[in-house]
Amino acid sequence: MSRRILAIAGDCAVGRTCQQILCPEEFHIEFCENPTAAVKTALTGDFEAVLVCETTSGFDTIQVLRQFREAALRARVIVLGNQPTVEAAVAAIKEGAADYLHEPCSAEELRAALRRIETAAPTDLVVGGAEAAAGCQGFEGMLGACSAMREVFALIKRIAPADSTVLVAGESGTGKEMVAHAIHQHSRRRAYPLLACDCTALAPTLLESELFGHIKGSFSGAIATKRGLFEVAHQGTLFLDEVANLSLETQGKLLRVLESRRLRKVGDTAEHEVDIRLIATTNRNLAEMVKTGAFRADLYYRLNVVPISLPPLRARLGDVPLLADCFLRQFARQMDVEAKGFSPEAMRQMEIYAWPGNVRELRNIVERISVLYGGIRIERDHLPWEVREAAPSGSTTELPNTWEEFRNLKRQIVENLERQFLIAAMKRSSQNITQAAEDVGMQRPNFHALLRSHGLKPEK
Description:
Elements: E1 3-9, H1 12-22, E2 27-32, H2 35-44, E3 49-53, H3 61-70, E4 76-81, H4 86-94, E5 99-102, H5 107-126, H6 129-134, E6 138-139, E7 142-143, H7 147-159, E8 166-169, H8 176-185, E9 194-198, H9 204-212, E10 213-214, E11 226-227, H10 229-232, E12 237-241, H11 248-260, E13 262-263, E14 272-273, E15 277-282, H12 286-292, H13 297-303, E16 306-309, H14 319-334, H15 344-352, H16 358-373, H17 385-388, H18 403-428, H19 433-440, H20 444-453
Parallel strand pairs: 1-2, 1-3, 3-4, 4-5, 8-15, 8-16, 9-12, 12-15
Antiparallel strand pairs: 6-7, 10-11, 13-14
């Protein structure tokens, strides 16, 4: 399904450029030239994002942002600014903009900003009143009731105010970019830009230009001087996605910038000071790459100041029902249908499935189910074949290799056993906490505290 985006620009050429950049992707772009009419369209239409494109024709961006804020616009707003100053970016963000990009921005910068909007979108849809009403537990758009995720949420809150470099490790689809967004939102740099760079998307030479910038004529095709992401993200946060894919040469240049806090553009001789916080992510084991010589040891230690490890969904015991139900309600609201929920058989099958694509795969499958069967109760037969036919594993998981892995696995097994024990006791007592506590031989306060620790509440 295409994501609806509104582009507001006083200059027709700017709006058409946005359409040309994004229309080949999964976006449906609507364009408005008149700011007054565009504001009304944004407030009445169901848009996922609004692009406010500044021009030299007197377009008042701050006034438009204030109208959005006063009207409680649910869509996220990205400003494409023609003022290359930190003050302009700060002013826009204080008025409610989710991001500020300097014109001319590259197609990849614009797509990256929209990807950040996508990962942040569940915050508005779930973590507000709907989440509280449903008993969902989440933080900055990330949902999770298991102890591993609660520890991640607590760690983000502790380290966000500092400027320490963070290395987020986890399989693809576990929410590494959302962690970076949450850290930035709770940091002292939240009024300044959060810029992302996908280290897998560009060749080494182009990646260096993207990170550090280049001067005119420094290489073939460099027809103008370009500011790099380190420079544009000054006083904000720079997010390097999948840093394991950096070439050894780029790793060396990145290390020099991080240690000296000074950068030199490609083809330049002068150095410039930079002030950024770096957050890096990886889905590979950097320590093992260091042993094989594929990753520099000095850069690894420089990045691994505060490590955050995201568990795969198959290890987040009890979180699949929480996530699936919240995603189903989210998509039901988008399609204006009633969410009937999942049958017990369907939910048991979803818990059996290993989810190799993690939370991203679960979200996409729930969206597919919502499109095909929205408004009816989801049964086992409605699930995709790979989920429907998944068989229970002969063992809980692979045997751990270290004592720390053993302790984590033991904790997960006990936690899952406790959760199933509580759910069964509440079901037998028709959701009566006092009766359930008496039946299992526990004091009511202890039983109630155990329910709360697992994020469980009596079903209505």
